[in-house]
Amino acid sequence: MYSQVLVPLDSSEASERALPHAHSLASAFSARVHLLQVISLSHEYEASRGGGAESPTVIEYSLDMARQLTADRQTRAEEYLKAAAARLEANGLQVATSVRQGPIWETIAHFVAEHGIDLIVMSTHGRGGLQRFLVGSVTDRVIRSSHVPILAIPPED
């Protein structure tokens, strides 16, 4: 029934709650597990924009710093996913990892289409009320835009 299972992770304990569920489903269906971490670049490049009165030297320095921060986040994400994959592979699963950059929910949607994903297993962070309104919910957006089944793992109480 399922052959390609996607687990989006963000290095948090909350996102890792999806891993045991993905493990069980992948084992049951002999499916390949794809671990994906999306790096949103908004913070780094917002910081590099400044107020508009900066000299070209300051602007170039800011862009260099943004590129370095992005490269550091990429490296940390790759190491994190490699460790998570090793834990799943130790239990006999086929695992692929990928780090992408861009808007999180849109990048997840593109990944699903590119890799023939037929199930997404992801955790919710449990934000509610005003915080959810201001921050938004990646899981909500993925659910609303996806054309494949999604298993959403709620937060622990």
Describe the structure.
It contains seven helices and five strands; from the N terminus they run βααβααβαβααβ. It has helices spanning 13-16, 18-29, 42-49, 56-89, 104-115, 129-135, 138-145, and strands spanning 4-8, 32-39, 94-101, 119-123, 150-153. The chain has 157 residues and is α/β, with parallel strands linked by helices. It is elongated, with a radius of gyration of 18 Å. It is 54% helix and 19% strand.
Which labels suit this protein?
alpha/beta, five-stranded parallel beta sheet, 157 residues
Summarize the structure.
With 157 residues, the chain is α/β, with parallel strands linked by helices.
- Under the CATH scheme, which class of the domain at 4-39 and 83-153? Alpha Beta
The arrangement of helices and strands along the chain is: EHHEHHEHEHHE
Radius of gyration: 18 Å
CATH superfamily of the domain at 4-39 and 83-153: HUPs
Query: Helix tally?
Result: 7
- N-to-C terminal Cα separation, in Å? 31 Å
Determine the mean pLDDT: 85
State the major sheet: 5 strands, parallel
Structural class: alpha/beta
Instruction: Tell me what the CATH architecture of the domain at 4-39 and 83-153 is.
Output: 3-Layer(aba) Sandwich
Poorly predicted spans: 130-135
**How are the strands of the biggest sheet laid out side by side?**
3-2-1-4-5
User: Which outline best applies?
Assistant: elongated
The fraction of residues assigned to DSSP E strands is 15-25%
Helix content: 40-55%
**Annotation, overall tally of beta strands:** 5
